[in-house]
Amino acid sequence: MASLMSEVIALIINEGGTDLFIESRGTLEDKRDKNTILDALKAHKPPDQFAYNWYLKKEPLLWLADALCGITRSHLLGTDDSGYFELIQEKKVVSGIIYRTVASKLNA
User: Fold this and answer.
1) Could you give the C-alpha distances from 97 to 16, 36, 93, in angstroms and in order?
2) Are the beta carbons of 5 and 33 closer than 8 angstroms?
3) Among 37, 52, 28, which residue's Cα sits nearest to residue 3?
4) What are the φ and ψ backbone dihedral angles of 46, each rounded to 5 degrees?
5) What does the longest C-alpha to C-alpha distance in the chain come to?
6) What is the distance between the alpha carbons of residues 58 and 32, in angstroms, rounded to a whole number?
7) 26 to each of 31, 34, 82, how far by Cα in Å?
8) How far apart are CA 4 and CA 10, in angstroms?
9) Looking at residue 37, what is its pLDDT?
10) Angstrom distance (rounded) from CA 73 to CA 91
11) Measured between alpha carbons, how far is 94 from 86 in angstroms, rounded to an integer?
12) N or C: where does the chain have the smaller number of CB atoms within 10 Å of the terminal CB?
């Protein structure tokens, strides 16, 4: 999880993002996430206005991320017959998928 979060933070910074919304997973997990975030920010030098914060599931912006993850998961599992994944690619909401396994990360 930490390596994925670091990778995503680097992508956000490289694309010019300035805000990171994180779904709270509880006190212990949030503390672990914060350490990962701080390490990633040191490594990737974000703009001064870069902000991050934790939110509960009731935050509507998190619903969008959950929906996109669900659509992508269904696509990868081959259970998506709705055409939603093709639609979000067509509308350029998702430009592609970077699929990694633990084994591929160890061999990289």
Assistant:
1) 20, 23, 12
2) yes
3) 37
4) -75, 170
5) 43
6) 22
7) 8, 12, 34
8) 10
9) 94
10) 18
11) 9
12) C
Q: What is the pLDDT along the chain (108 residues), one digit of tens a residue?
A: 688 889 889 989 998 999 999 999 999 999 999 999 999 999 998 888 899 999 999 999 999 989 998 998 999 899 988 889 999 999 988 877 777 766 555 555
Query: What distances in angstroms separate CA 91 from CA 74, 84, 85, 88, one per listed residue?
Result: 18, 10, 10, 5
Tally of residues, the chain: 108
- Provide the β-strand partners of residue 53: 21
Tokens of 106: 């160890």
* E-strand stretches of the chain: 19-23, 51-55
Q: Which two tokens stand for residue 77?
A: 């599992």
- Tokens representing 85 are 């994944």
- What is residue 66's three-state secondary structure? helix
